[in-house]
Specification:
By secondary structure, the chain is mainly β. The chain has one domain (41-356): Jelly Rolls (Sandwich), CATH 2.60.120. It contains no helices and 19 strands.
């Protein structure tokens, strides 16, 4: 891996509460002036996965178990570069060509009882404001608690006077964070720090703004879901495992818009006062639900907490990764259950990056 010594912590991150939260309401007010993402985009980078193997001019394999033996999240899998975990498959129903398959397996391998796949574009491709990042993904086999998959971003830049950028000072973006314990919802999030803290990690120094998307209603739920205990059947389109969906963000200068299948469900503004209180800065990381075009939409604000580094004004690289959860307290999605079925494959039809040209 090239480009930045980012600490890749917390792929699965437990949601934490934030100061200044606005209470969710069943019938949120209609936004009279919803944000408009004006402009024209052109395709500048893509992988359609139509070859016979992973294109290593675009992707890196990330192998092992992370810097502390569990990717920082209590995971119990080992990522490998074997075709058993990362491969190209063809002839999938409703695919637009070949697909990348990332597969977790229950098997004894080196020092672990589960294996997984994890790839990234570090040193080979990174993007920031003015881009749209999109992937078409089918979480086919993720149906049990403890199984999960993510399409996410980590920083490719760092301050000139630093040798690395610490998490979460450098930020993190989770475009698709899908787990078997919450099969009817996706989580779209940003992670950031409250304080520069001399670019050092501290457990308290973590801000998070996320929103759940409900596949059936195509907007955010009235209240956040909890572990549901359901195992969706194959083809259940109310679950994320039922079919292909298009996951993406539109990354603008002042905000980031999360969407699935074209429906925007979370808008995060980077500056204090940008979404609430008519632009008045109040030092509160606020969030709330509004209605845009008849759909509940989560809005949140304020991740530029310190002058040393504004994370979402810089470029990030893409990560596609699967995981197996090891406990309920630290792993988002929870510990793996005995009845979970393996192999567990997720299919990525394509990944595309568009640049705003006007």
């Amino acid at each position: 891996m090239c480009g930045v010594n980012a600490i890749l912590l917390f792929y699965f991150v437990v949601i934490v509460s934030s100061a200044g939260c606005k209470s969710p309401v069943e019938d949120p007010p209609e936004d009279k002036n919803p944000p408009q993402s004006s402009g024209t985009y052109e395709l500048v980078w893509n992988d359609e996965f139509n070859g016979t193997s992973l294109d290593l001019t675009k992707w890196n394999y990330e192998t092992g178990t992370g810097v502390n033996g569990d990717f920082g999240t209590g995971q119990i899998d080992r990522a490998t570069d074997r075709k058993e975990n990362v491969s190209i498959v063809n002839d999938l129903p409703d695919a637009e060509g070949g697909c990348l398959a990332i597969t977790t397996r229950k098997e004894n391998y080196i020092d672990r009882n589960y294996t997984s796949g994890r790839i990234n574009t570090s040193g080979k491709g990174s993007w920031g404001p003015g881009y749209k990042l999109v992937a078409r993904i089918w979480a086919n086999d993720i149906r049990y608690k403890g199984q999960g998959f993510a399409f996410w971003l980590m920083p490719a830049e760092k301050p000139a006077d630093q040798t690395n950028i610490m998490w979460p000072q450098g930020g993190e973006v989770d475009i698709m964070e899908y787990v078997g314990s919450l099969p009817y919802h996706n989580l779209g999030s940003v992670h950031y720090a409250w304080s520069w803290n001399n670019n050092q990690y501290a457990e308290w120094n973590h801000g998070h703004k996320g929103a759940y998307y409900t596949y059936h209603s195509q907007d955010v739920p009235v209240t956040n879901p909890t572990y549901e205990g359901y195992v969706p059947q194959a083809g259940d389109t109310s679950a994320g495992s039922g079919k292909f969906h298009i996951y993406g963000i539109e990354w603008l200068a002042d905000r980031m818009e999360f969407f699935i299948d074209g429906s925007v469900y979370h808008i995060h503004y980077f500056n204090d006062g940008a979404a609430f209180d008519n632009g008045v800065t109040d030092g509160q990381d606020e969030e709330g639900k509004i209605s845009i075009n008849g759909k509940r939409t989560q809005i949140s604000e304020y991740s530029n907490h310190f002058n040393e580094w504004h994370p979402f004004e810089h470029s990030f690289f893409i990560i596609l990764s699967a995981g197996v959860g090891g406990n309920d307290n630290r792993t988002y999605g929870g510990a793996i259950v005995p009845e979970a079925k393996f192999p567990c494959s997720v299919y990525v039809d394509w990944v595309r990056v568009y640049k705003q040209i006007q």
